[in-house]
Input
Amino acid sequence: MDKLKRKTHDAISQILFTEDQIKNRIYELAKTVNEDYKDKYPIFVGVLKGVFIFMADLLRKIDIECEVDFLAISNYSNDARRRGVVRLVKDLDIPIEGRHVLFIEDVIDTGLTLNYLLRNLQERSPASLEVCTLFDKPTRRLIELPILYKGFDLPDKFIVGYGLDYYEQYRNIPYVGTLRAEIFQQSACNSIKLKQGL
Ligand code: IMP
Ligand code: MG
Output
């Protein structure tokens, strides 16, 4: 194991889901989606960046004809999201009117971001709009959302890996785990210094 890799893995205090567990669950989800969406020519829509690894792995197990597209949103505080303030920084390239859309999420926490995005997409009159999330934190939910496909329930913990970040780090970890407590303090501190140009 090289130095960088050892450092990345050292930041993890507990592994919640291994690479194999995630792979097997995605295979099961894809089987259901292939069956449910055959003859529907769906569009898989994801929000960057957290979903990029899940989308890549899921799509390679999808064997029906489909399209894929991405949205990107700016980061806002919990308070702003609660007021429904989520700014699209990249919109879809493909029109979704009359199309079957499957919204792919990495993790749903309060549900505020997804709620905003679903309302935005619904206004474009898709034929159907459903949600598939790899991870869900049901105990943190502030708004009820319809979730058709779910990979795993999570406890109320902050997780990283498999595309999920903490201050843009740890997305490359192939499994999902919790960060060691001191990493939280250290990273927050470094990020503030970076922003201040120190
Ligand atoms: P929500 O609006 O509270 O549901 O926030 C959802 C977004 O917050 C996700 O798409 C992630 O980008 C981020 N997020 C929520 N929980 C976690 C976590 O445990 N690790 C990393 N990112 C998370
Ligand atoms: Mg997300």
Remarks:
- Residues 137 and 156 are 6 Å apart (CA to CA).
- The chain has a mean pLDDT of 90.
